[in-house]
Design a protein that fits this description.
This protein is of the alpha+beta class. It has nine helices and five strands. A three-stranded antiparallel β-sheet has the order 4-3-5. Strands 1-2 form a two-stranded antiparallel sheet. It binds manganese (II) ion.
Length: 213
C-alpha cells in the first residue's frame, strides 16, 4: 500500500508488482501482465508525471492528487491518470498467486454480517463485474461499518466516494482480452475462484491502512 512514492525530482514511481509476471497463470497469463503492468499501468504513471510538471500537483501525494482533482472538469486528465495509477496498485495487491483461500475470522464475520455468506459476496462481485457496461472497476468497500460491492466507470475510484476500498477487480478489456477475448465472465469467475487476496482485504479493514496512506 505504501509503495507509491513521489518526490519532486522524479515524480510518482510505479508501485512494485508484488509477484512475478507469470505468477497468476493459468488464470492471468504473463503476457497479459506484461502488457497490463508494463504498458498500461506504466503509461498512466508516465502520463501523470508529464501532466503535473510545473503545476500545484508536482510533489503532491497520489491520494491527495486524486482527491484534489476528482469532479473538476479542467483537471480530468490529471485525475484519470492519478486514479488509474492508484487503482492498478490496488488491483495488483488484490490478487495473489497463493490461491484464493479463506478470509480471516474477522473479515469473514464482517462478510457474513453484510452479505449473509462468503458465496453470496462472491456472487455479487461476479454479477457486478459482468454487468458493468464498458471499462471500469468492481470493488469491495467498507461503507459506514458495512461491506458493499460497488462499481466505478473508467478511472473512477471509491477514494472519491468517502468509502474505504478493501479489494478490486479490473474489468477494463485490457485486463483480460489477451487471455479471454470477449469472455469477461470467465475471467471474473476464475479471478474470484482462484486469485482473490483476502489477506489484503483484511489488512485494509484495520486502522494501520490509514496510517500508511
Ligand atoms: Mn487495467
Amino acid at each position: 500500500m505504501s509503495d507509491n512514492k513521489v518526490n519532486n525530482v522524479f515524480g510518482h514511481v510505479q508501485s512494485v508488482l508484488p509477484y512475478e509476471e507469470k505468477a497468476l497463470e493459468p488464470v492471468i497469463s504473463a503476457n497479459t501482465i506484461g502488457f497490463h503492468y508494463g504498458k498500461h499501468h506504466k503509461g498512466y504513471v508516465d502520463a501523470l508525471n508529464k501532466l503535473i510538471i510545473g503545476t500545484e500537483f508536482a510533489g503532491m501525494k497520489l491520494e491527495m492528487t486524486i482527491a484534489a482533482t476528482a469532479g473538476k472538469a479542467d483537471k480530468v486528465a490529471i485525475f484519470n491518470n492519478a486514479a488509474q495509477t492508484w487503482n492498478h496498485m490496488f488491483y495488483w495487491n488484490s490478487l495473489t498467486h497463493k490461491g484464493s483461500g479463506e478470509p480471516s475470522a474477522a473479515l469473514k464475520q464482517k462478510i457474513e454480517s453484510s452479505f449473509g455468506t462468503l458465496d453470496a459476496l462472491k456472487k455479487e462481485l461476479a454479477t457486478a463485474a459482468t454487468t458493468h457496461f464498458g471499462s471500469g472497476w468492481v470493488w469491495l468497500v467498507l461503507d459506514d461499518g458495512k461491506l458493499k460491492v460497488v462499481k466505478t466507470g473508467n478511472a473512477d475510484s471509491p477514494l472519491s466516494m468517502k468509502v474505504k476500498p478493501l479489494l478490486t477487480i479490473d474489468v477494463w478489456e485490457h485486463a483480460y482480452y489477451l487471455d479471454y477475448q470477449n469472455r469477461r465472465a470467465d475471467y471474473v469467475a476464475a479471478v474470484i475462484a482462484k486469485l482473490i487476496n483476502w489477506g489484503f482485504a483484511a489488512d485494509n479493514l484495520t486502522p494501520a491502512f490509514e496510517e500508511v496512506n
